[in-house]
Amino acid sequence: MHVLAFAASSSTQSINKKLVTYATTLIQGATTEVVDLNDYELPLFSQDREAELGHPERAQAFMAKIAAADALLISFAEHNGAYTAAYKNLFDWCSRIDQKVFQGKAVAMLSTSPGPAGAGNVLNTATGSAPYFNGVLKASLSVPSFYDNFDVEQNALKNPEIQTQLQTLLDVLVG
After folding, report:
1. How far apart are CA 126 and CA 133, in angstroms?
2. Among 38, 47, 83, 141, whose Cα sits 20 to 30 Å from the Cα of 93?
3. Rounded CA separation 152/109 (Å)
C-alpha cells in the first residue's frame, strides 16, 4: 500500500505539514510519500485561464500522484474558516481534469490550528464534501491548540490521548 500525504497549505512553516509529516512516521505496513503544494502552484483558476492554458502540467502531475496512491492523508489548514487559497486553487484546477479528484481512494483527513477549534470548520467542510469528489472517507481528526499538544522540537505529539486517536485513524486508513 502507498499513502500519499500532504498539507493543504503553501506555508513553509505550516503546522499542518508538521502534523501530516509526523503522522506518516506512524504508518505501518505501507510506504508513504509527503508532497508539498508549493510544487504544484498554478495561476488563479478561472474559465478564461482554463481556455488559455487547458489542463496545466502541474495539475496533471498532482492528479497522477493521487492516481498512483492507494490512500490519501491530508491535513487541512484553515484560513478565515475555509480552505487555504493554495489548496482551493489546485483543487479547482484538478476538478476540471476530473471532478472525481480523489479517484475512489481511501482518505483520512486531519486539521490543526494554534487555537482550540483545531481548524474544525475547514475539516467539517472537507469531510462533508469528500464523497462528492469520490473520496472514501475513512476517518478524520482535528488537533486543537497545536503548540500545546505538539512538541515542535521533538516533532511529535505530546498529548497521549490525541496520539492514540491519530494512531487509530492511521490504522483505519491502511487497515
Report:
1. 10
2. 141
3. 21
Q: For residue 75, give the DSSP letter.
A: E
The CATH number for 74's domain is: 3.40.50.360
The count of structural domains within the chain is 1
What is the domain extent for residue 43?
A: 2-174
Q: Which three cell numbers stand for residue 60?
A: 496533471
The identity of residue 152, as a single letter, is V
- Report which secondary-structure segment, H or E, holds 7: strand 2-8
Helix (H, G, I), strand (E, B) or coil at 115: coil
Task: Give CA–CA dist 73/107, Å, rounded.
Answer: 6
